[in-house]
Design brief:
Layout: H1 8-11, H2 14-35, H3 49-69, H4 74-77, H5 79-93, E1 106-108, E2 111-113, H6 115-132, H7 141-160, H8 164-168, H9 174-179, H10 184-202, H11 205-223, H12 229-256, H13 259-268, H14 280-291, H15 303-306, H16 319-350, H17 355-379, H18 397-420
Antiparallel strand pairs: 1-2
Length: about 425
């Protein structure tokens, strides 16, 4: 292949960059609205959250340019180093004091660094490096164990920080694993496990176990003459696993989850109704989104926003500001911007000649999409509140820099691909 004479800026995907910049700036406008007061109306007031975020945006843009100007092979060469540094930071943060119930931040002067946000970036690099450097198919057991080990190690350390939301996002790595050849049975098993978990919370576990056994017996009775003993044994093993999963749900629910997490799940499933307590955030966010109507109330005219009815409105619940002040049109426009970005990233991941770039690209898509899905889902009351920011949009320097690095390293990989073809 002969390299094109064009510079990196001629080959980078500018549409994706424009989508990124639009989402970031629109996020800042809504952050300004969510934190606006007469005392902090000045845009560059660094004592306000919108002023600090503007500073972080400038740093993020500088980081993006730096990544685009760097050597495309730098990140694949140093992937394991990034991963190791992240693991060390995750271990260090466990000794820090708790903030809002989670030990997730390292204080650096007036700022705080959240390693869990960068852990997704480091894990993406390490997973892409490993899967990109082997010829063995991913269905090989050794490859599976190592790949899942790379994913689960930082996720476990984050879970020890009592940050279940960030740990849950690591489930997104199943997308690059599946794309690289992991059997679809794993996805089916995961979906069934989640379904059984939810059903076990809604239905008596022993009653549900009895229903599973009865269905299995009917299945074997109807198809016994057409099934081999091997299939019958597999069916029995699957039924036993399902029953164990159902019966153990109560133990896992009571001992593995924090009290506020259990309450949020019960509230989502309708087992409890606490509109003034654990359900307050979601109830107020839905009121804010619904009150915006089709075109919204207008910039800085949202009553839910102005009077701070929704806690954490600048971070986890920033989307309700969009719904209230910009209405359905503004919300739909933001969703479309994300969707177009996701589609472009998927297309870029598909066209990579480098296995490293392809795996990394699908990791980027998976992480961004799951963040997007969970955040908007919890704002609309469709998913439990687990504290996951909206990519490029929510307030926070760590998340903005981590998401920027995550995206632009892939854009740099893709630009290198375009130069070479």
């Amino acid at each position: 292949m002969k390299a094109r004479p064009n510079s990196i800026f001629h080959n980078v995907d500018w549409i994706s960059i424009m989508l990124y910049a639009t989402i970031v700036l629109f996020g800042w406008v809504n952050l300004y609205a969510a934190t606006y007061t007469e005392d902090s109306a000045f845009v560059f007031n660094l004592e306000s959250q919108h002023g600090k975020q503007l500073l972080w945006i400038g740093i993020a843009f500088f980081l993006a340019i730096t990544i685009l100007l760097s050597d495309a092979h730098f990140f694949s060469t140093t992937a394991y180093l990034f991963y190791a540094v992240i693991l060390v930071l995750l271990l260090v943060v466990l000794s820090m004091s708790a903030v809002k119930g989670a030990t997730s931040w390292i204080p650096i002067g007036p700022f705080k660094l959240q390693p869990s946000e960068f852990a997704k970036f480091g894990t993406s690099l390490a997973l892409a490096k490993y899967l990109g450097s082997i010829d063995i198919h991913i269905r090989d057991l050794r490859t599976k164990v190592i790949a899942f080990g790379i994913i689960l190690l930082p996720a476990a350390l984050i879970l020890l920080q009592h940050d279940a939301g960030s740990a849950m996002v690591f489930a997104s790595f199943i997308i690059p694993m599946y794309r690289m050849g992991l059997s679809g049975k794993v996805l089916i098993i995961g979906f069934l496990a989640i379904l059984l978990f939810v059903l076990s919370l809604l239905v008596n576990p022993y009653l549900l176990s009895g229903i599973i056994v009865v269905v299995a017996v009917l299945y074997l009775f109807l198809w016994l003459n057409k099934r081999t003993s091997k299939i019958i044994i597999r069916t029995i093993l699957v039924v036993l696993l399902c029953v164990v999963c159902v019966i153990s749900t109560e133990f896992v629910f009571e001992h593995a989850l924090e009290p506020h997490q259990k309450t949020r799940i019960n509230e989502l499933l309708g087992k409890i109704d606490d509109p003034q307590g654990i359900g307050y955030n979601v109830r107020q966010s839905k009121i804010a989104v619904g009150s915006g109507g089709f075109f919204g109330k207008g910039f800085l005219k949202g009553t839910q926003t102005k009077f701070n009815f929704v806690p954490e409105q600048e971070t986890d619940f920033i989307f309700c500001t969009v719904g209230e002040e910009w209405g359905f049109m503004g919300s739909a426009t933001l969703v479309i911007l994300y969707m177009v970005l996701f589609v472009r990233l998927i297309k870029m991941a598909e066209r990579q000649y480098s296995k490293f770039a392809s795996v990394y690209g699908y990791s980027v898509v998976g992480i961004l999409f799951l963040h997007f899905l969970i955040n908007i889902g919890m704002v609309l009351g469709l998913l439990p509140v687990i504290g996951v920011p909206l990519p490029f949009f929510s307030y926070g320097g760590s998340s903005l820099l981590a998401f920027t690095a995550l995206l632009f390293v892939f854009l740099r990989q893709d630009a290198s691909h375009n130069i070479m073809i």
